[in-house]
Amino acid sequence: MAPRYSRRYRRFVLRDRRLGIFYCFELRGVVIHAVCDLRQDRETILRHLTN
């Protein structure tokens, strides 16, 4: 299990540390919401997750 990134999402950082997989747990299982470039600022990443 990856650490929490925000209240709802967890972030798994890939080996090269450039990409992160953002996911959460729901009744139907683990749901991947986004794969983002981690060089972006936090506000931009959160905007991608909430849209």
Write a brief structural summary.
The mean pLDDT is 92. The protein has one domain.
Low-confidence stretches: none
| Content-based structural category | alpha+beta
What spatial form do the alpha-carbon principal axes imply?
globular
Oligomer: single chain
Q: How would you spell out the order of helices and strands?
A: EEEH
Number of domains: 1
- Main beta sheet strand tally, sense and closure: 3 strands, antiparallel
Strand order of the largest sheet: 1-2-3
Number of strands: 3
Q: Count of helices?
A: 1
Q: Radius of gyration, rounded? A: 11 Å
Report strand %.
35-45%
What's the helical proportion of residues?
10-25%
First-residue to last-residue Cα separation? 24 Å
Mean pLDDT: 92
Topology, pairings included?
Blueprint: E1 10-13, E2 19-26, E3 29-37, H1 42-50
Which features would summarize this protein structure in a list?
about 50 residues, alpha+beta, 1 helix
Written overview of the protein:
The protein is an alpha+beta fold and 51 residues long. The chain has one domain. It is built from 1 helix and 3 strands. The protein has one helix spanning 42-50; strands spanning 10-13, 19-26, 29-37. Strands 1-2-3 form a 3-stranded antiparallel β-sheet, with helices on one face. It is globular, with a radius of gyration of 11 Å. The N and C termini lie far apart (24 Å).
